[in-house]
Specification:
Layout: H1 23-32, H2 38-58, E1 68-69, H3 76-83, H4 103-111, E2 121-123, E3 130-132, E4 135-136, H5 148-158, E5 164-168, H6 170-176, E6 178-179, H7 193-209, E7 214-218, H8 230-245, E8 252-256, H9 266-270, E9 276-280, E10 299-305, H10 315-331, E11 338-342, H11 361-364, H12 370-381, H13 406-413, H14 425-436, H15 453-463, H16 469-490, H17 507-510, E12 513-517, E13 524-527, E14 530-532, E15 535-543, H18 549-556, E16 564-568, H19 570-575, E17 577-579, H20 585-605, E18 610-614, H21 629-644, E19 652-657, H22 666-671, E20 676-679, E21 700-703, H23 716-730, H24 748-770
Parallel strand pairs: 1-5, 4-6, 5-7, 7-8, 8-9, 9-10, 10-11, 15-17, 16-18, 18-19, 19-20, 20-21
Antiparallel strand pairs: 2-3, 12-15, 13-14
Helix pairs in contact: 1-2, 7-8, 13-20, 15-16, 20-21, 23-24
Length: 775
C-alpha cells in the first residue's frame, strides 16, 4: 500500500443482496431446477450488483471505499470458506486441478447431493439469518481457492465504480467453524489461525492488484463470548490483525465488529495497524477515553443507524453519539476521525419502505428500510443534524392507536407464577398415554406439508378477492383431506393438517393478532434462496378471535388418529418479526404468550389432545454475552410456559426447535416443560442426543432424522442407524421419530419417499428391539 486513503464521511457495512423483488432467489431456484443455465444465473448476479452500486450512489454514498461489495450467492461464511479452500474431506472432489472451487460446487456444499449431506446450518449470532458451518480439521489445506471478490472488484471498475470488497475474517471463520468429522478428539479449528492468515494476505494482494483501495474484514465473533479465555483471544486478535496490517501489498483495511461490543480486544484491534475500525453503537456501548488509547490515526466507523430493525432513527440521539465518540477519540489522542455508518450490514432489513403503500400512514412514517437507512447515514454525515442526548432513544417515538392498549397491560400485570405451572411430568405422561395410546417410537411430522401451486393460487385469489370465503375454505379443506389421507396411507402415528392456509409460520399469526402489521415487499434473506417477510410488531398484542381451531378440528374429524394443533411460540414470533423497541422484550413476549394461551385452551376445548407450540428461535435470541443469558432465559421460558400451562394433564404439549446449536441451552429447553420436544439434528448428525441424558431431560424427545433443508432423500438404513443411536442414548420410552423441520419448502415426491423411509426405518427399529438377545 503506497498511501493511506481515508474512508469518506458516510458508509454502510452491507446491503440486501436478494434484489427488491427477490430476483436472486428466483434465478437460483430456476437454475437448481434445471430451467435455466449457470450463465443466466451469473447474469442476474451481475445485474443485481450493478443495480446496488447505482442505487447506493444515488442515495448519497460517494468517495473511494464508501460502497461495500457484500453480494453473496448463498452465504457470506460459505463464501469465506470457499475462498480459502476449507472443504471437508467428503467434498474433496469438488476442487479443480488448480485448487479452485466453482459456483456449482459451492451450491453442492450448501445443499448436499444424493450421496453427501451438506454443511451444517445454524444461526448467525442472535439474528434470523442462517450461515453454513465450516468444517475444519488439522489437515484442511488452506489456499486461495476462490477469486469471486477479485472478479467483482474488476467488474465494478470496468463500470467506472469503486467498491470495498467484504469478507468474513479469519478469526470469525474459525471461531464459527466446527471440527471436521475426521479430526482428532479435542481439536479446535482456531488452532489453525496461523495457517489461515497467510491466505488472507494473499487475497489482500490480489484485491490490491485488482484496484481495490479498501477491503472490509468482518470479525463479529469478537463481539460475543467465545470458548477462549479473554487474554488468549486478545493475543490471537493482536497477532492475526497485525499480520494482515503488515502485508506489503494490500488495500486499506476496515475491520468490523457488529452485533455488540468487542470487549477486551478493542486495544488489540486499535494497536494492530488497520486503517479503520467499526463499532456497533446500537447494541454496543460507547468506548471510554481509556479504551481508545493508542488509536493513533485509526478511523472509527460509528455504527449508529440500526442495521437490524426497521424503525426510523432518532437522528438527534445518533448525532450526539457520533459527536461523543469523536470527542473521546480526540481526548485519547486519536487523529483518524469518525465516519458515520450502520451498526451491521443492512442484509437484515428489506429494501425500500416507499413500496409499502398499504401500511397505515402513521406507522409507515416511523419506518426505515435499507434505502432509508442509507439516507439517514448520509444525513448524519452531512453535519446538518442537531445533536440531542447521547442516552436518548435511537428510534422515533410511536404514539398512534394500538401502541398501548390498557386492557392488555392490565392482564399481563395480573399474571402470577401459578399461571406457568403444570402437574409433574410423571402424572402428565400417565394421563397422556391413557388418552392417546401411542406405540413405542411414535412417528409424526413437524407441521407443514408441501405447499403445492394450487394452494398458493387459492390463497392469492382469495387475497385479491377473486374467490369468496366459501370457495377458499373448501380449497383448504380439500388439501387438508388429501394430507390426512396421505399420512394415514404412509402409516404415521400422530398427524398434522399440513397448514395449507398459512403463508408463513409467523406472518399467519401476525395477520390474526392485534398489534401487528404485515408488508407487501418486505423480504429479507433467511438463508440461501429462502426469504421471509418479517411482520412488524408495533403495539400491544392480543387475540380478537380463535385462529386455528376450525382447521384443526376439521382435520381431526377425518381420522381416528390424533391430530396436532399447530402454533408458533412467543419467542419465535418476536425473533422473526421486527419488534417494537420501546419496551423490554420480556413484556412483549408475555403479551404474545397470553394471546397464544387463549388459542391453546380453545384447541383443547375443541377436542384436540396434542398441541405443538414451536420455538425454533429459542436459541437464536440468546444474548452474545454469557452474563446476559439468565435474564433472557427467564422471560423467554416464562412466555412459553404462560402460553402452554393452562391445559389439563392429559393434553400433550409439544414444541419444536431448529437451526441452532442447542447444547448450550439444554437446561432452558428442559425448563420449557413441554411433554415432547422435537429438535433439528440431522445436519449435525445427532450431536444433541448426547446432551439429553434421561435424568437431566426426562420428557419426550424427537431428534430429527431427515434434513428437510436439502433435497436429498435419506435411506431407510441411514434413518434406522440414527434411530438406533438415539434409542440407546435416550431410551425407547422417550423417543419420537420426526423430520428436522416442517415440509413446506419440499416437493411431494421427495416428501412421500422420505416419510415412507422414515416409517419403514421405525418399524425395523421397533422390531429389532423385540428380538430376543443372543446368549
Amino acid at each position: 500500500m503506497t498511501s493511506t486513503p481515508a474512508l469518506p464521511a458516510a458508509t454502510i457495512l452491507g446491503y440486501p443482496r436478494i434484489g427488491p423483488d427477490r430476483e436472486l432467489k428466483k434465478a437460483e431456484e430456476s437454475y437448481w431446477a434445471g430451467r435455466s443455465d449457470l450463465a443466466a444465473l451469473e447474469e442476474t448476479g451481475r445485474t443485481l450488483r450493478a443495480a446496488t452500486r447505482a442505487r447506493l450512489a444515488e442515495l448519497g454514498l460517494a468517495g473511494e471505499g464508501a460502497i461495500p461489495e457484500s453480494f453473496s450467492w448463498y452465504d457470506q461464511v460459505l463464501d469465506a470458506a470457499v475462498t480459502v479452500g476449507a472443504l471437508p474431506s467428503r467434498f474433496a472432489d469438488l476442487q479443480g486441478e488448480d485448487g479452485s472451487i466453482s459456483l456449482a460446487s459451492t451450491f453442492v456444499l450448501a445443499r448436499g447431493d444424493e450421496q453427501r449431506p451438506p454443511l451444517e446450518m445454524t444461526k448467525w449470532f442472535d439474528t434470523n439469518y442462517h450461515y453454513l458451518v465450516p468444517e475444519i480439521g488439522p489437515d484442511t489445506a488452506f489456499h486461495l481457492a476462490g477469486d469471486q471478490l477479485v472478479r467483482w472488484v474488476r467488474e465494478a471498475a470496468a463500470a467506472g465504480d469503486s467498491v470495498r470488497p467484504v469478507i468474513v475474517g479469519p478469526l470469525t471463520l474459525l471461531l464459527l467453524a466446527k471440527a471436521a468429522d475426521d479430526a482428532p478428539e479435542g481439536f479446535d479449528p482456531i488452532s489453525r489461525l496461523a495457517d489461515l492468515v497467510p491466505v488472507y494476505v494473499e487475497l489482500l494482494a490480489a484485491l490490491s492488484a485488482a484496484g481495490a483501495a479498501w477491503v472490509q474484514i468482518d470479525e463479529p465473533a469478537l463481539s460475543a463470548d467465545q470458548r477462549l479465555a479473554p487474554a488468549e483471544l486478545s493475543e490471537l486478535v493482536a497477532h492475526s490483525t497485525a499480520v494482515l496490517a503488515a502485508a506489503a501489498d494490500r488495500p486499506a483495511i476496515l475491520v468490523t465488529t457488529g452485533y455488540g461490543h468487542p470487549e477486551g480486544v478493542l486495544p488489540a484491534l486499535l494497536a494492530s495497524g488497520v486503517e479503520a475500525l467499526h463499532l456497533d453503537l446500537v447494541k454496543g456501548q460507547l468506548p471510554s477515553v481509556e479504551d481508545l488509547a493508542g488509536a493513533g490515526a485509526t478511523q472509527l466507523v460509528a455504527g449508529v443507524v440500526n442495521g437490524r430493525n426497521i424503525w426510523r432513527a432518532e437522528l438527534g440521539t445518533a448525532a450526539a453519539r457520533v459527536g461523543e465518540l469523536a470527542s473521546r477519540l480526540e481526548q485519547a489522542g486519536g487523529t483518524g476521525g469518525v465516519v458515520v455508518g450502520t451498526s451491521t450490514s443492512l442484509q437484515h432489513v428489506p429494501h425500500d419502505v416507499t413500496r409499502e403503500t398499504k401500511l397505515p400512514a402513521e406507522l409507515r412514517e416511523t419506518l426505515a428500510f435499507a434505502d432509508q437507512k442509507v439516507a439517514e447515514v448520509v444525513e448524519l454525515a452531512s453535519g446538518s443534524v442537531a445533536a440531542g442526548s447521547v442516552d436518548g432513544p435511537l428510534s422515533v417515538a410511536r404514539t398512534f392507536a394500538g401502541v398501548r392498549v390498557p386492557a392488555v397491560r392490565e392482564r399481563a400485570a395480573a399474571v402470577t407464577a401459578a399461571d406457568t405451572e403444570r402437574a409433574a411430568f410423571s402424572v402428565r405422561a400417565a394421563a397422556q398415554q391413557e388418552a392417546l395410546g401411542l406405540p413405542e417410537l411414535p412417528t409424526t411430522t413437524i407441521g407443514s406439508f408441501p405447499q403445492v401451486g394450487e394452494v398458493r393460487k387459492a390463497r392469492a385469489a382469495h387475497r385479491k378477492g377473486q374467490i369468496d370465503d366459501a370457495a377458499y375454505t373448501q380449497a383448504m379443506k380439500d388439501e387438508i383431506a388429501r394430507v390426512i389421507a396421505l399420512q394415514e396411507e404412509l402409516g404415521l402415528d400422530v398427524l398434522v393438517h399440513g397448514e395449507p392456509e398459512r403463508n408463513d409460520m409467523v406472518q399467519y399469526f401476525a395477520e390474526n393478532l392485534e398489534g401487528f402489521a404485515t408488508t407487501e415487499h418486505g423480504w429479507v434473506q433467511s438463508y440461501g434462496s429462502r426469504c421471509t417477510r418479517p411482520s412488524i410488531l408495533f403495539g400491544d398484542v392480543h387475540r380478537a378471535a380463535p385462529i386455528t381451531v376450525d382447521w384443526a378440528t376439521y382435520a381431526q374429524s377425518l381420522t381416528q388418529r390424533p391430530v396436532k394443533g399447530m402454533l408458533t411460540g412467543p419467542v419465535t414470533i418476536l425473533a422473526w418479526s421486527f419488534v417494537r423497541d420501546d419496551q423490554p422484550l420480556g413484556d412483549t413476549a408475555a403479551q404474545v404468550g397470553l394471546a397464544l394461551r387463549d388459542e391453546v385452551n380453545d384447541l383443547e376445548a375443541a377436542g384436540i389432545g396434542i398441541v405443538q407450540v414451536d420455538e425454533p428461535a429459542l436459541r437464536e435470541l440468546l444474548p452474545l454475552r454469557t452474563r446476559d443469558h439468565d435474564a433472557y432465559l427467564d422471560w423467554s421460558v416464562a412466555s412459553f410456559r404462560l402460553a402452554t400451562s393452562g391445559v389439563a394433564e392429559a393434553t400433550q404439549i409439544h414444541t419444536h426447535l431448529c437451526y441452532s446449536e442447542f447444547n448450550v441451552v439444554v437446561d432452558a429447553i428442559d425448563a420449557l416443560n413441554a411433554d415432547v420436544t422435537s429438535i433439528e439434528s440431522a445436519r449435525s448428525r445427532g450431536e444433541i442426543v448426547e446432551a439429553l441424558d434421561p435424568e437431566a431431560f426426562p420428557r419426550g424427545i424427537g431428534p430429527g432424522v431427515w434434513d428437510i433443508h436439502s433435497p436429498r432423500v435419506p435411506s431407510v438404513e441411514e434413518i434406522a442407524e440414527q434411530l438406533t443411536r438415539a434409542r440407546a442414548a435416550v431410551g425407547a420410552e422417550r423417543l419420537w421419530v420426526n423430520p428436522d423441520c416442517g415440509l413446506k419448502t419440499r416437493g411431494y415426491a421427495e416428501t412421500e419417499a422420505s416419510l415412507k423411509n422414515l416409517v419403514e426405518a421405525t418399524l425395523q427399529v421397533r422390531a429389532a428391539a423385540q428380538e430376543p438377545a443372543l446368549v
